[in-house]
Design goal:
The structure is a single chain. The chain is an alpha/beta fold and 228 residues long. Helices cover 30% and strands 23% of the residues. The chain contains 7 helices and 14 strands. The strands form 3 sheets. Strands 1, 2, 3, 4, 6, 8, 10, 13 and 14 form a 9-stranded mixed β-sheet that branches. Strands 5-7-9 form a 3-stranded parallel β-sheet. Helix 3 links the parallel strand 3 and strand 4. The radius of gyration is 20 Å and the shape is elongated.
Amino acid sequence: MITDPPLLTVRRNFPRPTADQVAAFAGCQTGHAVDAMSGGGALDGQIKSIGGVKPFCGVAVPAGDGPADNLATFGALSIARPGDVIVSATGGFKGVAVIGDLLLGMMKNSGCAAFVTDGFVRDVVGLRGVGLPCYAAGVTPNSPVRNGPGTVGLPVMVGGTMVGPGDIVLGDEDGVVVVPYARIDEVIERLAVVRAAEAELEAKVKAGLKMPDFIQNRIDAGLFNEID
């Protein structure tokens, strides 16, 4: 480039879900949220809780860090509000850690709900001591630089899923799911249907169900091609 790019491009004021919208996802299983979105929305399965599984739910503040850098994560922390989830995109870079226990501690002190990255983290013992949910693709002792360029509050791709500012992010033992801001009300409405269907099927399984009707009906209709 002929001229150097700005260290950070920051969108501070973006639309946010209401407190009631966020509360509607409190305690929601990630699998239920995925079903309410017709089977999508989960980050890559490699992104798991580091330092112990701690379910969470909050509002996404995306940080476009890029490989080997974490300046944008600090930028995201500077605009984060209590209950926010900082989501760092590294392009899946595995060479260095995006954060360690000290930066996670600063996030906790700022009231963040969790930290999520497609990169690596470090200081697992310290992360466990901080107690804030931390989801990452792996662990390495290597440390990043803070040079930029990067983005804050703009959409990023993390774990094969686009994460926008103001999206709702939730995580549990199964992984991390993103509910796009534009679909929040739709997903809340469908969650009630999903939960009811899950509860009904669960009761049937406990009562001895061997095959659900929606599969048995296909078998009976001859939709399976049987060969000798």
